[in-house]
Amino acid sequence: MNELGQNSRATMNFATILAGMALLLFVGMVGYVYLEGWHWIDALYMTFISFSTVGFGEVQPLHPGGRIFTMFIVFSGLIIIAMLSASVTSLLVRREFIATYRTKKMKKQIQHLKGHTILCGAGETGKTVISEFAKAGKPLVVIEENTEVLERIVDQYPKMYAVYGDATKDEVLQEANIASASGLITALSEDAANLYVVISARAMKPDITIVARAVDTHAANKIYKAGATHVISPNLTEGMRMAATVLRPNVVSFLDVMSNDQGFTLRLEEIRVPKRSRFAGKTLREMEIPQRTGLIVIAIKKAKAVDGKTVLFNPQSSAMIDEGDVLIVLGDRERVEKLESLLFTPGGD
User: Is the pLDDT of residue 345 over 80?
Assistant: First the structure.
């Protein structure tokens, strides 16, 4: 039985015991009213103190039949209370066991990851990063020291990897398997903390791509010097977006639809041409990407500069594709996967 089934069964058992307790109270109350002729309040009180075994005296003197009935209530109450205690204990132990097992299992899975990305901080910026990685289906390890935030992320994204701890500490980055990671995003709330993460990450893995958040634009240069590959300043980005919304409202509106509309399937994606690809050394005309996949090639980032240019925007059909080049394309995920399968096939059609 899976974890969900076990939790459902435990909850059902607990509810059944509570229902049995309520039924016993009702039966006891009716029994005392019928056998002893008591008022229903006295009958309910006598039933409650009997099955709970608190040891209070009788409300009124009991007849022989009432005493036998009281023994039945006491015996039934002992059974129900024992079952309730066992159910609560089992539920608490099971939850603790499941949480421990899930944590150990996740740690093992993280240590087997290759080429994943590490996110430090799951605040508002981090949540957006998590959402984008979940949409793309790419492996992401989230480091967060707020347990409540971390639990909500795991509940919302069951396939997401999570590590509890302070991202500025080396052992936490090691737990996130930074040695095998290809990228790291640090989106902590303080620039000093992001700076520490950049320094640690660059020292632990010199070739990793690091994207850091800088709240203060003056801290951006320091973070770059510490080893960040890219530094994003929310204040600068927000200012540029506000200006663009006034100057180019239709363009911004289109980009918003692409980014946020779940029903809008077109996305800007990048695909790197692998080594020994059958398309390496061919032109865009020869590749026939629009005809084969339906994708639109927006730009090409060259592995080696051509005529002093590293990025070719709106490339001509005569543009040559080489190993290591990155194709920026517009289309849905299914078409992107089709192009990836073509590029990563060493030969044949």
Answer: no
